[in-house]
């Protein structure tokens, strides 16, 4: 949900600003025509009453060129994003707190944010921040008798490009749209945070070439307790000093460079990294925070190994299944895992927000002991990568990302042949040849390999999850590959030996070295 929220924000901002460069070019063509009405003498602009009186008319026409029907339509389309964002936030907060109900205050925040954004992107905002520049250029050229060609060049540089490489309108709308939607999102979150008494935040958003050092370090830190807000603003971020070479400050404000003057611990969640900051300080439930981080703020010391292990998962529940699990797997987890053996729905899954492994005992599950065993390995894998922050909705560990690319390289040249082989195996009667007593178990084993192939080719080859699943679920290919790695390590991987043995060995090595031998 968080990833989708960020995607909707970015899409709305990009959609509006992609329209602006061509709009600026159209405006400049019309401005060139307007300049022909300026009185000149021997190519110099005349310092005349007529020219001076024409400035207001020129600027009014310039305003109208900007705010034409297409531009106004784009403004209306952009403001629709406020409704989308608030709806997504309502869904998110409902998922992490049963006590959440959208308040009237939130509706008022949305209403005022939309009104403010419309004002900034139209009439008064455009006049003050874009059109006044045109007025200044005209006045100077008229009063100094500048060359008419120089006046046109100045207009071209102002309207189409400047020192930042952007035209005046584009530079202005980029800042307004970015700040309007991101600050609305942040203010909405801050209001809910106070209402629900949430104490933890996740700093999310992509890093780009122009990301400020403050945001770079805070994105790396990721999880922030409410008691740390003053520290990360004025002292240090995980040992990296504020106002140091790594995180330089504005000498006038004493704040990290780029921050809005007046930013303090109370409004940091709204102002974030400053103007045009695309990051969000998203409030989260404490259960979403890794235990080794959370315990630093809840207790003076971490719990003893024995009590921590006992709290993580009820092995009696796990042992109801024919798995090879023992107490050692508990160390793969970082926080308590709930297990629901009678989940509703049609698909077994790991629920991130409630930290629950939900098992659906449908007909296919009942017919296959292999499936009964491997569904535990698979969903336990999802719990592991989520809890240990290897793969989440907004993050993929670089080491696992490289593993994914290496595995993809191994299959991509032969994916079509693997796909044909899996199809032939699935419809064959070769189950006893591969050591399976029942055909249902054999088919489940083949499908496990097919779904791995699908994850590595984004649904182009293989079976299981379809292309739409890979396209719409953030980081799903990484997450499913990890879950299959868990199956390979703990379960029967004979069909991987038959179809993609080199991938199996790669995943096995990673799981053994990075998960089992590097347990928490």
What key phrases describe this protein's structure?
three-stranded antiparallel beta sheet; 10 strands; 520 residues; 3 domains
Report on the structure:
Mean pLDDT is 84; it is low at 299-316. The chain has three domains: 1-185, no CATH class; 198-289, no CATH class; 304-520, no CATH class. The chain starts with a helix and ends with a helix. It has helices at 2-35, 49-66, 69-96, 104-121, 123-144, 148-160, 168-196, 213-221, 229-234, 268-271, 291-298, 305-312, 315-318, 363-367, 369-387, 398-412, 415-426, 439-456, 467-472, 476-490, 494-499, 501-516, and strands at 40-41, 44-45, 200-204, 223-225, 236-237, 240-241, 280-284, 338-340, 349-351, 356-358. With 520 residues, the chain is mostly helical. It has 22 helices and ten strands. It is elongated. The longest helix has 34 residues, at 2-35. It has a three-stranded antiparallel sheet. Strands 8-10-9 form a three-stranded mixed sheet, with helices on one face. The protein has a two-stranded antiparallel sheet with strand order 1-2.
């Amino acid at each position: 949900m968080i990833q989708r929220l960020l995607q909707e924000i970015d899409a709305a901002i990009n959609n509006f600003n992609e329209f602006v460069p061509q709009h600026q070019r159209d405006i400049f063509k019309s401005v060139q025509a307007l300049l022909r009405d300026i009185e000149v003498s021997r190519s110099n602009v005349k310092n005349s009453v007529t020219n001076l009186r024409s400035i207001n008319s020129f600027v009014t026409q310039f305003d109208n060129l900007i705010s034409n029907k297409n531009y106004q339509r784009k403004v209306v389309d952009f403001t629709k994003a406020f409704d989308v964002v608030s709806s997504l936030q309502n869904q998110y907060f409902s998922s992490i707190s049963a006590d959440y109900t959208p308040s009237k205050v939130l509706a008022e925040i949305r209403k005022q944010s939309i009104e403010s954004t419309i004002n900034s992107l139209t009439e008064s905002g455009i006049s003050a921040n874009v059109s006044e520049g045109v007025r200044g250029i005209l006045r100077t050229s008229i009063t100094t008798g500048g060359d008419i060609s120089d006046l046109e060049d100045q207009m071209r540089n102002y309207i189409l490009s400047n020192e930042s490489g952007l035209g005046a309108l584009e530079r202005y709308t980029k800042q307004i749209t970015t700040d309007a939607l991101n600050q609305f999102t942040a203010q909405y979150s801050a209001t809910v945070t106070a209402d629900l008494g949430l104490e933890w935040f996740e700093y999310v958003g992509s890093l780009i070439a122009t990301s400020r050092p403050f945001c770079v370090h805070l994105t790396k830190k990721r999880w922030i307790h409410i008691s740390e807000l003053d520290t990360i603003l004025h002292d240090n971020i995980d040992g990296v000093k504020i106002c140091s070479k790594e995180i330089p400050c504005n000498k006038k404000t004493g704040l990290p460079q780029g921050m809005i003057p007046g930013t303090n611990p109370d409004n940091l969640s709204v102002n974030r990294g400053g103007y045009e900051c695309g990051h969000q300080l998203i409030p989260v439930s404490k259960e979403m925070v890794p235990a080794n981080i959370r315990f630093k703020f809840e207790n003076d010391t971490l719990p003893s190994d024995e009590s921590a292990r006992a709290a993580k998962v009820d092995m009696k529940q796990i042992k109801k299944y024919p798995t090879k699990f023992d107490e050692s797997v508990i160390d793969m987890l970082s926080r308590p895992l709930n297990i629901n053996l009678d989940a509703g729905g049609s698909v077994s899954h790991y629920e991130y927000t409630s930290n629950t492994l939900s098992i659906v005992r449908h007909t296919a599950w009942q017919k296959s002991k292999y499936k009964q065993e491997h569904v535990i390995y698979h969903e336990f894998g999802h719990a592991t990568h989520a809890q240990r922050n290897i793969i989440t909705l907004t993050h993929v560990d670089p080491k696992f990302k490289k593993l994914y690319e290496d595995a993809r390289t191994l299959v991509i040249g032969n994916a079509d042949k693997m796909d044909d082989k899996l199809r032939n195996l699935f419809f064959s009667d070769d189950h006893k040849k591969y050591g399976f007593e029942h055909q249902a178990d054999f088919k489940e084993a083949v499908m496990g390999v097919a779904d791995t192939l699908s994850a590595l080719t984004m649904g182009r080859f293989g079976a299981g999850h379809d292309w739409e699943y890979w396209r719409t679920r953030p980081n799903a290919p990484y997450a499913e590959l990890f879950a299959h790695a868990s199956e390979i390590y703990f379960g029967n991987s004979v069909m991987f030996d038959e179809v993609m043995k080199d991938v199996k060995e790669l995943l096995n090595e990673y799981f053994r070295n990075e998960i089992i031998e590097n347990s928490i």
